[in-house]
Automatic annotation (TrEMBL), chains A, B, C, D:
Pfam families: FmdA_AmdA. Residues 179-225 are annotated as: Disordered. Residues 199-208, 216-225 have a biased composition (Basic and acidic residues). It comes from Azospirillum lipoferum. This is Acetamidase/formamidase family protein. Transmembrane segments: none annotated. GO terms for molecular function: hydrolase activity, acting on carbon-nitrogen (but not peptide) bonds, in linear amides. Gene3D superfamilies: Acetamidase/Formamidase-like domains.
Length: 410, 410, 410, 410
């Protein structure tokens, strides 16, 4: 078995583990170093570092400190890696810890994070998902069970100083357009809760003050939350610093396209078995700006779908110009209304869309003024038949179970 | 064999065929009437009504009259259909005409229609695709061949008067925000080129002046350009008028998600074999606003992909807030740069993305401020291996063939 | 559109069409000649030449003249083809005739042909399958509908004189072990009903007396009845005579692995669109004895199966040594018993296994003394759920419809 | 995490572990007891109990004591299970031990076990396969790597006394037809190496003398070696004794249909996570004689195949009557010849067919006198392109690496 190079002791705060960090900065020292061709295991905290518990109270979701996220394992230095190379990463396997066979999904309060449908679901809610081998189900959402499409939500290499500066500049410019918005348009550097790995002293403080937050995906990959970047896939990452500095975390047992619930997929702590290689000067050779990848040959084969359409006219009837975000929101809302006819609460339906392997497609993006987005809901994950028929839907779900909800503190 | 209820004589102008129309309006008389349970065949013009020719000159794409599109076959009245019902349509089969085994793809001039990447490809270009049974290839784009995922780009039922009024109002409001933009933000009713089917006289003139243009997808479906709504699928359409009034056209031999080239997919004339049924009061029973559908069990099984990521930072480096449209554009541009390394021109690469069964996924849409879109490029459609390797790409494509281009008229 | 090189007039006896033949012999003249790279269409009679009718009487199945089969279209000569080459054949498309949108399936009487389960179903029965675009269903077997996996049951090149002599010798040797068996162990040449295409006079009579029957698959391919050799696939055939001499027929709209009902798959007349190429000296280059092929990228995606096992202990409890034939028979009988619990008659269940895209796998073939065969029954072809549950099966099928049966003549 | 109810200490002989047994007999006491709805983990020895080593010498394969196999973990008693019930088993997950990330494949000597192609490969050979997360490759067979389709080769419930008697009787009758054959037609009970679990004293000796060997699959399932019965699948087993008595072992990391190499698949020690339930009186309700199952939604998605045909004419040219065993042997031999053209030794090619997820289909089984079998070889498992082309094959494999071979002892 490959060596476990980074361990995550879940009984310990990730801040006490110096092979963990929660900001992107080129000065973070490599936690470990490997050679091209090596395979090894990294253990990871869940993205919140243990803030969310396996219980029936959504207060922890409401009160989460989002300035702490995401806790990443790394950086892993790769010998010989130089800026301009491609770092080839095989995700050989990923799993939960034997002693922690569960994950969480939830919606943040609109006052603290929000989410894709925060106007419709403004309060914190959560669901707990138990793992049964390759499968998962939730005590808070009956009638649905599916195989995991396990993947890291967040993985990428350290940015260079130049790249970091570019990120901070463009994101601050966006914030400046509406600096008091709740939730904020972007998250600027925030030193108080920064965890800079082994970086200490003044160097740590300087880096903490400028280290990029881990929330958005960026050129290096990062928090892409791409469900298809799953165990078994091979990724080609741009390298920006000597040694590459690969970090990862935010493991998901399963997620729907868009990670629309934001908190998040089925979030879990766990481990990943990786193998690394290099394509020297690969960025120029292949014209690479963002990571590219080949998906896994082992993915759930759910292929019977019910597909919902959405167009870029919003809930208020307002016309948007080729706005796929609005269109996908409508497709999601349509699917939620549909599932409610079978007895689910809106929150339960929303959670299914955030956790199950649903696909979100950009179906049409040129037919002015309406973008068309489609949501592919796999029918085989339900215990019952959700196909329309002449008699209308049966309420298979009795409604006596719902997801915990936590009212905002006044 | 089922009866052909509407015929399309390609040697004749679609304006001379009164079972064709090119606007949406509830007053357009049913061209034919069928019963629930009937199956039948409709023939269709290509969406431009024959404006684009099988030749090596893109002038026809440059000079296309977009006020004429799309020529639709219908409306088909369904006995017993009433507002609030769902019209269940089985797309039993779709094909090209034996005597016209080709289709076209192209980019409009930015001066006349534009498209998804019009800033990068501002001039009219086209490619012609020959069909070989279930497969297609183009003399303008070597090295690529694939099976067709044949589908109607446009299909839906007539709107009610109320729904039509709502469309016109909201779209005009958008236009009013920037009425002189080129290309326009939306297309208002335009009577001179309206084809209102069998509607004649004053009634025709009134309807032509208010008939909705067929370009965007809307609540009824319409020009969704969803590649997965392919032959073999079953669609559930909202019904807004007595008799439903199903119309269709804009047949595609194949298309990538987004139809990014706008002109369009692989566009063709042809026929469709349909079967209709009703779910009475189905809109309320299932909470339906937009059509839903089940995809076909017969689709190309290309499943080996190279996947490109894009984030919502535009080509100029500007940060956009969770803008999937921008993110998908970046993913597409990334794929184009990549394919150029194998010898394709940018235009050829763009066309491949517009025509082949590529998937466009809304992968992440909550990680502020960046949306993440992914483009799945099937590797099995190429004659050569496009996977990255340590040696870098081989220029399999010599570059001596390119797509016809037509400079704008001065 | 490609030219139709061989036409099949279904109102005419195939014996009157000199581009048809029903025996394998190297002296049969080429009916047409094409060049490598050409694509073209061949029309085909159904394998019996029209003996089976679209009605509700199985007498035609009982009385079929099996000495006449199979009526093949060809041979097609390919310029430049020489013995030792591989003839590359693309099955670009295959379909039924517009005016004949149906096919038949049946069991022969044990007295005239028999079949895989002839001990259990000794009398002639048939079912008629109507085509609805890409789908089929039968008025004789309710509750089941599926997309066609359309393919030629029989396709291959003419044998050389040496190869023909080898066939006749080894098959006669088998017959000689039990010459009076009913049904016979093999079918020797039989001149009276031979159709030798354009071969006339003494040459015809000589060839008719030695022409191999078309029933079995052999080194050249021939009557392989491989459902996966479907439209869209590419086949590499050994060439034994100058010009190759490709012939084909026995079109199937759909078939299960094994073609266990023998009469046969869903049998139909129709057309095939082919393209040919050559790999010179390909047999030696690739060590080819039998055809090889790449399957189609367009096949029905039914992937939810209920799988039945069978071992090589026969119905009487007798132990056979690693006999896959016996094991597959048990798997089929197990599936039939299972389906009867839902209300099907045994004959209906048997027909489903013969016509739907079921897979038959050689799962274990070394664990002495029992071979293990598995039958994969796609669950998605049924209108109802056939998965086991704690309550036991529901009789969805009322039993008021059955397949026509024809008692043997006394 | 579920409890591990049976542990396998690989440093200990399985004979010392009384929760292991290697014969089928109803008197073997339950090793553990669970309730319907429970999930739990069983650890398993490899089928030989550690006789084969991770080295480069095939002497262990040559000298294996086959009277010892298979070492099974169990029996697991299920409360409430009675004869006639169906035991529903979910294979929630299966894996290798972290400290033993490898498996073996080999051919037995014809003098000691033999195998499917023992006439062509009469000497003992082996290959060692290293696991890299979900993937495997062998240092003895370059150029090939694939994802595991992990499954138990052997799983089933204890037979009743009556069923056991029937097995022994029919298998002895077969042996009696040629009692001196090498390898034997079947394996009769053999007490000296029997491991009867917790059964002790006279009861043990009596049961050991009549306990059925574990080699063949039988009515209860047993050694089916069905690759599709993989982790994630759900199996419905007939129950013959009170408490059911589920036992399992013979874990495979991957296997081709037929397990043609006999020693065997990629054989490994490991663990399985199971869940059990009951369908009371399920055998009668569903007409079940042999187990049925639903395959996993998580299987490798290799779907690009090169398919080889074989007919029931053997290597000597002799004609067999509808013998699928002979036909599949020809298909396998054809694939081996083909792969040799790319540089593989025959033994390497044979091993690939035995280990990779190849499919073996019973394609035609009625076209007298030839059965037709097809072997589906996935092309995506090779590092290079194995598709035929006009230039002929390239020898990608240099031939400097081969599998260890062990000459028979004289």
């Amino acid at each position: 078995m490959a060596d476990t190079l980074i361990k995550a002791d879940l009984s310990q705060s990730p801040y006490e583990n110096d092979m963990i960090h929660n900001r992107w900065h080129p000065d973070i020292p490599m936690a470990v170093t490997v050679k091209p061709g090596d395979d090894f295991i990294l253990e990871c905290y869940d993205w919140t570092g243990g803030q969310i518990k396996n219980d029936d109270d959504a207060a922890d979701v409401r009160d989460v400190d989002l300035s702490q996220v995401h806790f990443l394992s790394g950086p892993v230095g790769v010998e010989g890696a130089e800026p301009g190379d491609l770092l080839v990463v095989d995700l050989l396997d990923i799993g939960a810890f034997p002693q922690q066979q569960w994950g969480f999904n939830g919606f943040f309060s609109k006052q603290n994070g929000g989410g894709f449908l925060t106007e419709h679901f403004p309060l914190a809610q959560k669901s707990i998902w138990d793992f049964e081998g390759m499968f998962t189900k939730s005590r808070h959402i009956p009638g649905v069970r599916f195989a995991g499409l396990i993947h890291p939500g967040l993985i990428g290499c350290l940015p260079s100083h130049d790249l970091l500066a570019k990120w901070n500049k463009r994101e601050q410019a966006l914030i400046d357009t509406n600096p008091t918005r709740v939730p904020g348009l972007a998250n600027p550097p925030y030193a108080p809760t920064a965890h800079m790995g082994r970086l200490k002293g003044d160097a740590r403080d300087k880096a903490a003050a400028e280290g990029a937050r881990t929330v958005p995906p960026r050129e290096h990959g990062g928090n892409c939350d791409i469900k298809d970047l799953s165990r078994g896939s091979r990724i080609y990452f741009p390298v920006y610093v000597k040694g590459a500095g690969l970090s990862m975390g935010d493991l998901h047992f399963s997620q729907g396209d868009g990670e629309i619930t934001f908190c998040g997929a089925i979030e879990m702590a766990g481990w990943a078995h990786l193998k690394v290689n290099l394509i020297k000067d690969g960025m120029a050779k292949y014209g690479i700006r963002n990571p590219i990848f080949k998906p896994s040959p082992i993915v759930p084969t759910y292929n019977d779908y019910l597909i919902f359409e959405g167009i870029s006219v919003d809930e208020a009837g307002e016309q948007h110009y080729l706005d796929v975000h609005v269109a996908y929101r409508q497709a999601c809302l349509n699917a939620i209304e549909y599932l409610k006819k079978f007895g689910y609460s809106g929150a339960q339906a929303y959670s299914i869309l955030g956790t199950a392997p649903v696909q979100g497609h950009i179906s049409g993006v040129v037919d002015v003024p309406n973008a068309c987005a489609t949501l592919f809901l796999p029918t085989q994950i339900f215990d019952f038949d959700i196909t329309p028929n002449a008699d209308g839907p049966t309420k298979f779900i009795s409604g006596d179970i719902d997801m915990p909800i936590a009212p905002d503190r006044v």
